[in-house]
């Protein structure tokens, strides 16, 4: 209650601290005004007290001014103010002091049992003094009322002076605590919303990075293998173009087929990405910002990782033999062995196994041309195991001169890890390279054998 309010009230946070306990200018002005009024009231009542007590008037007025001025510290020491008002009750001074003191005490954070005790003391003191004053007045006037009149009037007077300020103070204090509680709850909710917004932004950034990686992996898997075979066939075509026109023609036809297959797969992927990037209302119904908002990156994730394969039926284990045949046509010596009974797996499992074999053969074309290669495919009840191993290249350390981005092995590992499988790659003791993957089928495909 000090920092911000003080700075706004006086131009700096240190001005009111020198005065003591006020957090706002109007609070200090109110207390000073009440203290002046109470001092004036008690000073006037001190004149009558001095006459009754037989003391100098100046002393009675000075006592009243000092007593009334205690309202200045009502916010800091409300208990002391109430005790002073109770103490001067016999002097019949301090009405404003008692009312404001009781209100401040009830509205403060003082324990309720202390408030009840002090309020009871004020009631008893007011009751006694009122009864004594009532009897004195009745005797001086010569009026003899019934016996119940004095207690009734005194009780009403005591409760009328004490109860209203106490009840009002309790209400204001409870309302103040409720407002503070609601404010704290609102601040807490605001902090939670801010934290949730930060986490949402972090998740969105993570999703964007993840989708960039998946799209890059898909583009690599779809295009790299076909283009690598095209380069290999183009090199063979160049070598035999003059010596063996028939073989050159055959290689040229293979290059054309590979190019058409690469374009078909590339168009399929781009078509899927485009269909997920257009808003539901049409391409012209909103601007780029609306399109980005209505097409979240999660949809691109599905397009990049799954739909690109499934849109055209997707590769499957039955096509691995044709994939190996393409490498054989390009001049690679490949041995294919398939173990286990033929069975169906989930589409993503079969597609992942196909992509692992495809990328491994592409790496052989790139980095070990002429090396003998063995592809082993094991069909098991709840998983598919893939092994692609090549020996050392017959051309030594030379390769086919194909560019490599270094993402092939990483992409295979990510694909397998996404399905909860295991992936291992590395050189063999014989100087070749081995790629091994075990891909679990957690959801068995319907109709499996």
UniProtKB/TrEMBL annotation:
Keyword Protease belongs to the record = no
Q: Which residues cross the membrane?
A: 53-73, 79-103, 115-135, 147-173
Residues folding into a coiled coil are 179-210
Per UniProt, residues of the Signal transduction histidine kinase subgroup 3 dimerisation and phosphoacceptor domain are 211-276
One MF term in GO for this entry?
kinase activity
Question: Catalysed reaction(s)?
Answer: ATP + protein L-histidine = ADP + protein N-phospho-L-histidine
Q: Which UniProt keywords apply?
A: ATP-binding, Coiled coil, Kinase, Membrane, Nucleotide-binding, Phosphoprotein, Transferase, Transmembrane, Transmembrane helix, Two-component regulatory system
- EC top class named in words: transferase
One Pfam family cited in the UniProt record for this chain:
HisKA_3
Q: Classify the source by domain of life.
A: Bacteria
Could you tell me the EC number(s) of this protein?
A: 2.7.13.3
What this protein is called in its record is: histidine kinase
Organism, as annotated? Streptomyces pactum
């Amino acid at each position: 209650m000090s920092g911000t309010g003080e700075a706004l009230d006086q131009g700096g946070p240190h001005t009111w601290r020198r005065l003591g306990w006020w957090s706002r200018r109007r609070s200090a002005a109110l207390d000073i005004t009440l203290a002046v009024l109470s001092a004036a009231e008690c000073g006037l009542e001190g004149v009558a007290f001095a006459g009754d007590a037989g003391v100098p008037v100046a002393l009675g007025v000075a006592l009243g001014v000092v007593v009334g001025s205690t309202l200045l510290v009502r916010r800091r020491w409300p208990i002391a103010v109430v005790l002073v008002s109770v103490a001067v009750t016999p002097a019949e001074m301090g009405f404003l002091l008692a009312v404001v003191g009781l209100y401040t005490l009830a509205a403060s954070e003082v324990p309720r049992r202390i408030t009840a005790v002090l309020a009871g003391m004020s009631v008893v003191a007011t009751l006694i003094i009122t009864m004594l004053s009532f009897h004195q007045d009745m005797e001086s006037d010569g009026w003899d009322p019934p016996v119940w009149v004095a207690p009734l009037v005194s009780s009403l007077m005591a409760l009328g002076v004490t109860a209203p300020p106490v009840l009002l103070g309790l209400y204001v204090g409870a309302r103040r605590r409720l407002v503070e509680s609601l404010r704290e709850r609102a601040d807490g909710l605001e902090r939670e919303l801010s934290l949730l917004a930060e986490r949402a932004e972090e998740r969105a950034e993570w999703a964007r990075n993840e989708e960039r990686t998946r799209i890059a992996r898909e583009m690599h898997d779809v295009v790299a293998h076909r283009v690598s075979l095209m380069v290999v066939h183009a090199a063979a075509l160049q070598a035999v173009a003059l010596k063996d026109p028939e073989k050159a023609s055959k290689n040229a036809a293979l290059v054309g087929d590979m190019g058409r297959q690469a374009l078909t797969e590339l168009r399929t992927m781009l078509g899927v990405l485009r269909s997920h990037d257009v808003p539901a209302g049409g391409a012209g119904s909103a601007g780029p910002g609306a399109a980005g908002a209505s097409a979240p990156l999660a949809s691109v994730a599905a397009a990049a990782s799954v739909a690109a394969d499934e849109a055209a039926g997707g590769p499957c284990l039955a096509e691995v033999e044709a994939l190996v045949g393409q490498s054989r046509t390009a001049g690679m010596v490949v041995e294919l062995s398939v173990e286990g009974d033929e069975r169906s797996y989930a589409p993503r499992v079969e597609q992942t196994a196909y992509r692992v074999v495809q990328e491994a053969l592409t790496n052989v074309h790139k980095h070990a041309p002429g090396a003998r290669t063995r592809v082993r495919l094991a069909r098991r009840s709840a998983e598919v195991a893939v092994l692609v191993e090549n020996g050392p290249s017959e051309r030594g350390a030379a390769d086919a001169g194909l560019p490599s981005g270094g993402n092939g092995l990483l992409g295979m590992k990510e694909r397998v890890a996404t399905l909860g499988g295991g992936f291992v790659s590395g050189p063999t003791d014989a100087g070749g390279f081995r790629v091994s993957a075990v891909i679990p089928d957690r959801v068995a495909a319907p109709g499996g054998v």
